[in-house]
Amino acid sequence: MRLFFAVLITILSLFYFLPFAIAFHRKRANTGAIFALNLFLGWSLIGWVVALVWALKDEQII
Question: Would you give per-residue pLDDT tens digits along the chain (62 residues)?
Fold first, then answer.
């Protein structure tokens, strides 16, 4: 039973930090800001969705 909860917490943690992982993989310039938003406001669904959209949005080079 402990193994089940350990695996469940690990999977949920990976899903929770999915926006940061996407931003890190795509080498975004603002990965640190996405991580901070995800860490502090990701618990609310709105904060997590904003972080995900921000990580997936294309960067515009000016």
Answer: 999 999 999 999 999 999 999 999 999 989 999 999 999 999 999 999 999 999 999 887 77
